[in-house]
Design brief:
By secondary structure, the protein is mainly alpha-helical. It is built from one helix and no strands. The longest helix has about 90 residues. The radius of gyration is 41 Å and the shape is rod-shaped.
């Protein structure tokens, strides 16, 4: 049987094509993973922006509640002082 003189060259060509196909597959997987990573990053950035807005709102509500609490405490203090004054006058006017 006569060996085909092109057979070694064809084997090298097939091996090179196999390597090229493997490299293409790796690149496609990497590109896909990169796309997934970029999509996840975009989602995280959207979440971060949404959370920042929610945090700002919560801080504003907290400040409003603190202001209302301080105002209520002042009013309760004035009301307590007024009640003490009335009680002192009432008990001071009663005969012993």
């Amino acid at each position: 049987m006569v060996a085909d003189p092109l057979e070694p060259s064809l084997k090298r060509l097939r091996a090179a094509i196999d390597l090229l196909e493997a490299a293409i597959e790796r690149r496609l997987r990497q590109d896909s993973a990169l796309g997934d990573t970029q999509e996840e990053l975009a989602l995280m950035q959207d979440d971060r922006a949404r959370l920042a807005v929610e945090l700002d709102g919560a801080l504003d509500r907290n400040r409003a509640l603190l202001t209302a609490n301080n105002e209520a405490a002042k009013r309760l203090g004035r009301a307590g002082a007024a009640i003490r004054t009335v009680l002192e006058r009432t008990t001071g006017d009663e005969p012993d």
